[in-house]
Design brief:
The complex is a heterodimer of chains A (385) and B (232).
Chain A lengths: L1 H10 L3 H28 L1 H4 L5 E6 L7 E2 L2 H6 L4 E9 L2 E2 L9 E4 L1 H7 L3 E2 L2 H9 L3 E5 H7 L6 E6 L5 E12 L9 E4 H11 L6 E2 L1 E6 L5 H11 L7 E5 H11 L1 H32 L1 H10 L3 H38 L10 H28 L2 H6 L3
Parallel strand pairs in A: 5-10, 7-9
Antiparallel strand pairs in A: 1-12, 1-13, 2-11, 3-5, 3-12, 4-8, 6-9, 7-10, 8-9
Chain B lengths: L7 E12 L2 E13 L4 E5 L6 H9 L6 E6 L2 E2 L5 H11 E4 L11 H6 L9 H14 L15 H13 L5 E5 L7 H18 L2 E5 L3 H4 L4 E6 L2 E2 L7
Parallel strand pairs in B: 3-8, 3-9, 6-7, 7-8
Antiparallel strand pairs in B: 1-2, 1-4, 4-5, 9-10
Helix pairs in contact in B: 4-5, 5-6
Classes of the chains: A alpha+beta (385), B alpha/beta (232).
C-alpha cells in the first residue's frame, strides 16, 4: 500500500511534466492505432476473401477482358461448384470525389457465391426482376442516404453515357469483414446496352468468379482452369480471391510499408521521451532514494518505485490513446467512406496499443532503475539533481 | 572509565577510493571506542575523513580493511541485504539537509522506518504520534516538508531517526543548514536524547560550539585520529 501511495504521489509531483508525458504517450498510441487500422483496412479486401472462391482473369492484364464464352468450359472443370462473372463499371456518382466501386455481375450466380451479402428474399427477388436495379451495401447506402426505390445516376468512362439504377436492395454484411461499400448492377443490362450501341465490347467479362468445393483444391482447380486456355489468344490466370485482392494491395506496398514503419517509429520516439523523463526523475530523486536505502529499504524497493511510476504514466497515456482511437477511427471512416469500407479498429490493434504503452513504460524505466540500484548510498546522498 | 564493552569498537579501520589508476587513502588505521550513551563529535578540517568515518559507522559505506563492531556485530562483514536490515534496526540518521521525502507528510516521513518492521498500522500510528510529540511537532503531522521551517524539518528528521528506537544515532552536520538559534534547539534536543533516552550519538560537525554540546570530541586530520582532548 505504501509503495502504491508513494508512487502515485511521485507520479504527480510534477503535474505539468507528467501531464505532457501522458499526452505524448496518448498521441503516440493513438497514431500507432490509426496507422495500423489504415493498413488493416488496406488488407481488408484480402481478409474478407473466401477460401472457396477463385478469380479467373486475363493472364495479360486485369484490364484485358475475357470472352463470356469461356464460362461454358470453366463451369465443367473438375472441382468447380459455381460460376459467375463481374465487370468493373467505373461510374461516377455526381462528383468524382464520391468514389465507390460498382460491379456489373450475373445476379443469381453472383449472390450464390457471396452469401455474406445478406438480403431479404423480397429485396433479392426485386433486384433480380429489375434489370436496371442495383444492390448497395449498407455502409454505402448510409453514406449517401439512399433508400429502397431511390434512383442513382452514374456516368461511366468505361461504358460511356448516362446511366441510372434503382436501388432494389440494401445488403448487410454477414460479419464485420464483409464489404458494405459496393454497388452491384446487372451485367446483362450493361452488356445489352453495349451491344445495342456497338457489337464491339459486348459479351466480355472482367473476371470470372468460381466457387470450389474444397479449399485444399484451390491450386489444382486453378491449374485445371488455366490449362484450358493455355496457348490461346486469351490465356487466363486463376488465383484464390485472397491472392487476387493482395495483388491490389501490392500495388501500394511501398505506402503500406512506410505506414507500418512510421507506426513503429512513433512508438520508438515516445519511448525515447519517456526514457528521458524517467532518467530526469531518477536523477532528481537520487538523494531521496539514497535516504530510503540508508533507512534500510532494499535496492529492489527503489527499482519498484521507478518501474511503478513509469508503468503508471504509461497506463494512463495508453488508456487515453486507446479510448481516443475509437471516436477518431469513426470520424475517419465517415470521411473516407467507401475508400476504406469496413474501416475499424480491431481488438488486435487495441491489444497492441496497450502492449506498446506497457512496453514503453517498462523499457523507459530500465536504465534509471539499474543506475539507481548501482549508485551507492554515499554517492546518492551527495548527488545534486 | 566504563568497564562495559563499548557499543562501537573500531580497530585498524582504513578506507581508500580508486580514481582511475590512483588509490586515494581517506582513513588510515583508525582505532576508536564509543561507549553506549556517549555523545561524540567528530571534528576536523574539510577532507579529513570525518564524514567517511561517520558513514562507515552508520553502515552506509564499507571499509577497505579493519573491523567495525557495533553492539558485538562486525558490520564490515555483513552483505548488502544484511547491512540494510541491520541499519533499519539499529541506526537512526540525521542529515545536514534533512533528506525528508517531499511528497510525504511529516507523519509519513517519520513512519518510513516503521514500514520495515512487523508493527501493525495502529501500532505504527501510535509510535509516530509519540515520537512527533517528543520533538514537539505533533500539531504539524499533516504538513509536508515545504510547509515547515528548517528547524522543524530537522526535528521531523530526528523523529524519523528515533522512531524505531535505535541504540545509535548518526548525525552529519545536523545544524549545518540552520541559523544559530534553531541550531541550538536541535542540539539541545540531541542532548536530551542522550541524557533522557540513553541514545548514543556520533555527530560530524565543523562548528566548535556544536561540538561543545558533545561529551567528547574526536579530531581527524588527513584521515588519521589525532590526540583526543579529555572528555567534557
Amino acid at each position: 500500500m505504501f509503495l502504491l501511495r508513494l508512487l502515485l504521489k511521485n507520479a504527480f509531483r510534477h503535474r505539468l511534466r507528467t501531464g505532457l508525458t501522458v499526452l505524448g504517450l496518448a498521441v503516440a498510441v493513438l497514431a500507432y492505432g490509426m496507422l495500423r487500422s489504415i493498413v488493416d483496412a488496406w488488407y481488408a479486401g484480402a481478409e474478407a476473401s473466401s477460401s472457396t472462391r477463385l478469380i479467373v482473369r486475363s493472364a495479360t492484364s486485369l484490364t484485358v477482358p475475357l470472352p463470356l464464352a469461356f464460362a461454358q468450359r470453366i463451369r465443367v472443370v473438375d472441382g468447380v461448384s459455381g460460376l459467375s462473372w463481374s465487370n468493373w463499371f467505373g461510374g461516377v456518382y455526381v462528383d468524382p470525389r464520391n468514389f465507390f466501386p460498382q460491379f456489373a455481375v450475373d445476379g443469381p450466380s453472383y449472390l450464390a457465391l457471396y452469401p455474406e451479402y445478406v438480403l431479404t428474399e423480397a429485396e433479392r427477388v426485386a433486384w433480380l426482376r429489375d434489370r436496371r436495379g442495383a444492390l448497395v451495401g449498407a455502409q454505402l447506402a448510409q453514406k449517401f442516404g439512399w433508400k429502397i426505390g431511390d434512383v442513382v445516376p452514374l456516368k461511366s468512362s468505361l461504358y460511356p453515357g448516362n446511366w441510372s439504377f434503382t436501388v432494389r436492395g440494401i445488403w448487410q454484411g454477414a460479419d464485420a469483414a464483409a464489404d458494405e461499400g459496393q454497388m452491384l448492377i446487372h451485367w446483362a443490362y450493361v452488356n445489352e446496352t453495349v451491344r445495342a450501341r456497338s457489337r464491339r465490347g459486348s459479351d466480355f467479362v472482367g473476371v470470372f468468379v468460381l466457387g470450389i468445393r474444397d479449399p485444399n483444391d484451390a491450386a489444382l482447380v486453378a491449374q485445371r482452369v488455366d490449362a484450358q486456355f493455355r496457348n490461346s489468344s486469351a490465356e487466363t490466370l486463376t488465383e484464390t480471391e485472397k491472392a487476387f485482392q493482395l495483388g491490389f494491395v501490392s500495388m501500394s506496398e511501398a505506402i503500406l510499408v512506410a505506414l507500418q514503419a512510421v507506426s513503429y517509429v512513433v512508438i520508438v520516439i515516445i519511448l525515447a521521451v519517456m526514457a528521458n523523463t524517467m532518467a530526469m526523475t531518477a536523477r532528481e530523486r537520487m538523494p531521496e532514494y539514497a535516504t530510503l536505502a540508508a533507512i534500510g529499504f532494499p535496492p529492489g524497493f527503489v527499482a519498484r518505485l521507478l518501474f511503478g511510476e513509469s508503468l503508471l504514466i504509461a497506463v494512463l497515456g495508453g488508456m487515453v490513446g486507446v479510448l481516443l482511437t475509437l471516436p477518431l477511427a469513426s470520424a475517419f471512416a465517415g470521411v473516407t467512406g467507401s475508400l476504406f469500407p469496413g474501416f475499424r479498429v480491431s481488438a488486435t490493434t487495441m491489444g497492441l496499443q496497450a502492449a506498446a504503452a506497457l512496453a514503453v513504460g517498462a523499457i523507459a524505466a530500465l536504465w534509471p532503475a539499474w543506475k539507481a540500484s548501482r549508485t551507492g548510498i554515499v554517492a546518492g546522498l551527495r548527488h545534486v539533481g | 572509565m566504563s568497564t562495559a564493552p563499548p557499543l562501537i569498537r573500531i580497530r585498524h579501520l582504513s578506507k581508500s577510493y580508486r580514481r582511475a589508476e590512483q588509490t586515494i587513502p581517506v582513513l588510515l588505521d583508525i582505532e576508536l571506542d564509543v561507549q553506549a550513551g556517549d555523545f561524540v563529535a567528530l571534528m576536523g578540517p574539510s577532507g579529513s575523513g570525518k564524514s567517511t568515518l561517520l558513514n562507515l559507522i552508520a553502515g552506509i559505506d564499507k571499509p577497505s580493511s579493519g573491523t567495525i563492531e557495533i553492539d558485538g556485530v562486525d558490520i564490515a562483514t555483513l552483505g548488502e541485504r544484511a547491512l540494510a536490515d541491520w541499519r533499519a534496526a539499529n541506526v537512526g540518521f540525521v542529515f545536514q539537509f534533512y533528506n525528508l521525502i517531499p511528497v510525504l507528510s511529516a507523519f509519513e516521513n517519520v513512519e518510513l522506518p516503521l514500514l520495515l518492521t512487523d508493527l501493525s498500522a495502529r501500532e505504527r500510528r501510535e509510535r509516530v504520534a509519540q515520537t512527533l510529540a517528543l520533538v514537539a511537532l505533533q500539531d504539524r503531522a499533516d504538513h509536508q516538508p515545504n510547509e515547515l521551517s528548517g528547524g522543524q524539518q530537522q526535528r521531523v528528521a530526528i523523529a524519523r531517526a528515533l522512531v524505531t528506537d535505535p541504540r545509535l544515532i548518526v548525525a552529519d552536520e545536523p545544524t549545518g543548514d540552520l541559523d544559530r538559534a534553531t541550531g541550538e534547539e536541535v542540539l539541545a534536543l540531541l542532548q536530551r536524547l542522550v541524557s533522557e533516552l540513553g541514545k548514543t550519538i556520533v555527530m560530524v560537525t565543523h562548528d566548535p560550539k556544536a561540538a561543545s554540546r558533545a561529551h567528547r570530541m574526536v579530531h581527524l586530520e588527513k584521515g588519521v585520529l589525532v590526540d583526543e582532548p579529555s572528555p567534557v
